Amino acid sequence: MHPLRLMQGDDIDRRKFDQLIEEIMVSQGDVVVDNGAATFVPLSSYLKENQTIDFLEEAGMRVLIHTVFTGGQAMKDTADGLVSLARHFPIVPLVV
Question: Helix/strand/coil (H, E, C) string of 6-73?
Fold first, then answer.
């Protein structure tokens, strides 16, 4: 496990996403990126805006997106997140 500190004060340092992709590119095995709800929108935006999924796949990597779907109070938020992922990354296998 290799944590990547994304926060700079109270803000997310989006430049750290570049570092994340660089580390993925030099990895020797499977990589799992486990991010929390606070970085869901910024990371998704970064991946979409920079066509990162295409870049990784062109480099020979297989990309899967895992997402959590919960019940209770968080159900609407997780459902919205699932819909957002399916819309923004329609050809990426999505595991719920």
Answer: CEECCEECCHHHHHHHHHHHCCCCCCCCCCCHHHHHHHHHHHHHCCHHHHHHHCCCCCCEECCCCCHH
Q: What is the mean pLDDT of each run of 10 residues along the chain (96 residues)?
A: 82 90 92 86 92 95 93 93 93 94
Q: Could you tell me the CA-to-CA distances from 20 to 30, 63, 89 in Å, in that order?
A: 14, 14, 19
What is the residue extent of each domain of the chain?
1-26+35-60, 64-96
Amino acid at 42: P
The gap between the terminal CA atoms of the chain, to the nearest Å, is 23
- Chain centre to alpha carbon of residue 91: 15
